[in-house]
């Protein structure tokens, strides 16, 4: 391995710069909510402990068995899904985990590129390009969700390749090398995590061939990796035979043209700015014209792009002096391009024979293995750019104009992709009916992030503390995949910690007269950081000659950013008929209501003094103009009455 002549401090600078750049680039992930399968899988582990009395270990074991009986042999994913959601109970923790796992991949990619070339500057340049290829998509996206499964797979894969290279660097390294054992173990974990790993074994074979070992050592070193593929592949086939079903993974099609088209589409998703240029859901402005210029002239875009430009320029301008490294040889570049091509293309092969996956592929739109493929594109692409930088033509290796041009190309990719990612992240939060809302996101449960945060917080604060277990808690709204007829019991069990029956708008109506323990939850969300949730109790009604059914307010959870500083009375007031017989719409002073619990930006009030007779249907929350100047731009400077429904 050729040393690069740099001090360890330079490597620390590169890594620190990369981590800061990657953190800023992926920061929009932190503002997104649960989506698709995460919407209900995030509740399942905690709900199972409440509804079934299971331990977390039993929940994980049952989920692994369930995935095996579906005919899928990826037991580590069966473990990972409940384990991750059990470990990260809040959405911000879960998103921070996804960002952290992506940064780990970036760090290991830097280490792999450094190990393969002996060049810290090339490794940092290549990693910077990889950052610019991390594109968010309003479809199944590994950066937004999917429990970090692909990030963990990439980390294991790069760890396996690094350990294998260490083994190959040992003079006459035998089959009992601990590095080889670690490499095979990491690759086995990849194969148990996702079947796409089977087609990545050529990466290991290529590294062994690159080391120039003899035939016997090649066979001895490669056989454990081929054995992993053979055993795991056979078990996968066996499970599909034992548990046949109509699920998509039981159906394959090998039509050559369809397979090639799918490979091209999936691979295109890893190319620079491919999702931005394809714009499949009409989210971005036209690439030409003043609108695009205004769209890009954003302080955050300039900051992120400048950080990428600075790092690339430092790397591309080779240091001078006697200790300066020589250029990466032509043979080494060919190996890099070959490794990059395998990483960029091979993960699409198994997807390409699946009609289910092919049906949703398009230029720039692929499935979750795209996270693997971007590192292949980064490795091959940076090797080609580096060859131009180190070429003797055009002013010699590291000429200023070549370094500037290459750095500008990478920085432009990083900046434009960051801006596109911001738009996609906002799209996940856009409520139905708003300008940024897209049906493609809505059909998978997107668009209700802030209502979910509101309801989660209300239940955690104790909204249902006085509700007995197995009571009927009627919902006045449906939110798909987490707060509807199917999943609402999981939601209440997970966040309120008790089993309840939860009918809603899409469920059969609650009978009249109401059950002895019948409650109703109304929620109202006006703006980010503002909202309210009301618990009421239904009593009586339906008996011949009797009193009509009554729905009386019991508890009110209110969220307001300055409520803990200015107090409930100055943050909002209530309107509704009160026990003294005032007209509907008469104000109710929040200062007179007992505070059960409070925290930063929220308060849980008891409506006990008037809740026994205060009709819930007439209650309205009005957010007053905040006295805090920083909040004066909020949703209401005296908002219209917002009815809880």
UniProtKB/TrEMBL annotation:
Ubl conjugation among keywords: no
UniProt-annotated stretches for the region Disordered: 568-589
Coiled coil feature spans: none
Domain of life from the UniProt record: Bacteria
Residue intervals passing through the bilayer: 12-36, 92-113, 143-164, 184-209, 221-239, 292-314, 335-354, 366-389, 401-418
The protein's name in its UniProt record: Glycosyltransferase RgtA/B/C/D-like domain-containing protein
Organism: Tautonia plasticadhaerens
UniProt entry keywords in alphabetical sequence: Membrane, Transmembrane, Transmembrane helix
């Amino acid at each position: 391995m050729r040393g690069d002549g740099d001090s360890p401090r330079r490597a620390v600078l590169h890594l620190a710069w990369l981590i800061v750049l990657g953190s800023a680039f992926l920061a929009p992930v932190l503002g997104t909510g649960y989506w698709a399968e995460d919407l209900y899988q995030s509740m399942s582990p905690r709900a199972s402990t409440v509804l079934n009395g299971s331990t977390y270990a039993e929940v994980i074991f049952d989920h692994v068995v369930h995935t095996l009986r579906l005919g899928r042999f990826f037991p580590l994913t069966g473990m990972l899904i409940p384990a991750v959601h059990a470990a990260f109970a809040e959405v911000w923790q879960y998103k921070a985990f996804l960002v952290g796992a992506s940064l780990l991949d970036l760090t290991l990619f830097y280490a792999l590129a450094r190990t393969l070339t002996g060049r810290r500057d090339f490794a940092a340049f290549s990693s910077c390009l990889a950052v610019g290829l991390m594109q968010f998509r309003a479809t199944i996206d590994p950066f937004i969700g999917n429990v970090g499964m692909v990030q963990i797979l990439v980390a294991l894969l790069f760890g396996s390749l690094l350990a294998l290279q260490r083994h190959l660097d040992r003079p006459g390294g035998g089959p009992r090398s601990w590095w080889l054992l670690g490499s095979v173990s990491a690759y086995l974990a990849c194969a148990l995590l996702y079947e796409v790993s089977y087609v990545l074994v050529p990466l290991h074979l290529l590294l062994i061939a690159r080391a120039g070992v003899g035939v016997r050592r090649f066979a001895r070193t490669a056989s454990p990796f081929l054995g992993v593929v053979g055993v795991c592949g056979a078990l996968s086939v066996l499970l599909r035979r034992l548990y046949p079903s109509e699920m998509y993974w039981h159906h394959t099609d090998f039509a050559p043209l369809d397979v090639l088209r799918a490979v091209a589409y999936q691979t295109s998703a890893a190319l620079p700015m491919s999702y931005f240029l394809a714009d499949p859901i009409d989210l971005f402005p036209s690439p030409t014209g003043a609108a695009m210029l205004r769209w890009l002239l954003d302080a955050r875009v300039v900051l992120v792009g400048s950080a990428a430009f600075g790092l690339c320029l430092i790397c591309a301008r080779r240091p001078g002096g006697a200790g300066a490294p020589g250029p990466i040889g032509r043979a080494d570049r060919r190996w890099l391009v070959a490794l990059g091509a395998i990483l960029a293309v091979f993960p699409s092969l198994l997807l390409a024979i699946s009609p289910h996956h092919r049906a949703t592929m398009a230029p720039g739109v692929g499935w979750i293995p795209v996270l693997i493929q971007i590192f292949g594109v980064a490795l091959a692409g940076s090797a080609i750019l580096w060859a131009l930088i180190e070429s003797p033509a055009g002013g010699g290796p590291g000429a200023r104009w070549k370094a500037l041009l290459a750095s500008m190309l990478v920085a432009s990719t990083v900046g434009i992709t960051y801006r596109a990612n911001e738009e996609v992240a906002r799209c996940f939060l856009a409520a139905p009916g708003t300008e940024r809302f897209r049906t493609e996101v809505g059909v998978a449960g997107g668009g209700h992030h802030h209502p979910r945060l509101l309801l989660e917080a209300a239940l955690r604060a104790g909204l249902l503390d006085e509700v007995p277990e197995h009571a009927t808690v009627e919902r006045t709204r449906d939110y798909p995949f987490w707060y509807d007829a199917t999943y609402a019991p999981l939601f209440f069990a997970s966040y309120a910690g008790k089993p309840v029956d939860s009918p809603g708008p899409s469920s059969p109506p609650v009978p009249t007269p109401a059950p002895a323990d019948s409650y109703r939850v109304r929620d109202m969300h006006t703006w980010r950081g503002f909202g309210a949730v009301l618990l009421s109790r239904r009593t009586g009604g339906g008996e011949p000659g009797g009193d009509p059914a009554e729905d009386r307010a019991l508890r009110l959870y209110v969220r307001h950013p300055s409520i803990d500083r200015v107090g409930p009375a100055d943050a909002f007031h209530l309107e509704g008929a009160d026990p003294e017989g005032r007209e509907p719409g008469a104000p109710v002073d929040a200062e007179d209501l007992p505070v059960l619990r409070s925290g930063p930006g929220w308060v849980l009030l008891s409506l006990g003094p008037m809740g026994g007779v205060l009709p819930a249907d007439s209650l309205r929350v009005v957010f007053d103009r905040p006295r805090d100047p920083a909040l004066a731009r909020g949703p209401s400077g005296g908002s219209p009455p917002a009815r809880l429904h």
